[in-house]
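Record filed here:
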Amino acid sequence: MLGKRKVPKIFFGIFGFFLLIFLFDRLGWLSWLRKASEKNLLIPLKQRIYDWKNWRGGGQDCRLEEERKLAELKKEIAALTEENLAQKRLLFAPLPGNWQFLPVKVLEAKNEILLIDKGRQEGVKEGMVAVLGETYLGKVSKVSEEVSEVKMVTFLGEKLVVEFFSTDKKNFLGRGLLVGWGLGKAIAEQILANEEVKEGDLVMVEVEGKTLLIGKVKELLFKEGEVFKSAGIERLYQPPSLRTIFLLKRK
């Protein structure tokens, strides 16, 4: 007759260990351990599994959010790049070294008016000249605390005395009165008929002893026998493309 098999002592040890764990848990003595394991192990693990499932299963919402963030980042980079290019353009423009500028961002370009992000608090005043490199854009026409408006030379009824130069800027050809017609158009009037202004010549304006570029002659308008002739002017920039421009500070 076979003798009875003895139960290994290790079995009683394991059983006793789990029994103590059960009792301690019921008494709440192990709540700190549960919280620690949930915070440092369970929650991170579940989050990773959830993210992985979203990524594997499509995760459209997550991808859309990532695409939105990426688009915003690209927009910020583009804005910084544009501002950097504008600063370089201004730096290398042949402008007087004692001129001081206030950089501003264009918020809107509409009806021949630029809305900019600086106002009275930043020292903007009516009449300040707006430039892009050595290109004359217009003057500040309206100022509030936070924003301002710049009327471009093509604004309806805007008038400005201009000068004409050859394309190499070496030969002065004459003067005229530039009048804005709106819709991106401007016409230089009162040009003496005998002055040798022709298509392609540069249109410039004098600002504090320095001539700035406005555009070029697109077409000549005159009749035989008249004392004066006119010229249609083409600007060399598109307002919607303007991002960072500069205001000339008065001395």
User: Anything to note?
Assistant: The chain has two domains: 35-92, 95-251. The radius of gyration is 37 Å. The chain is about 30% helix and 35% strand. The helical segments are 9-26, 31-57, 60-92.
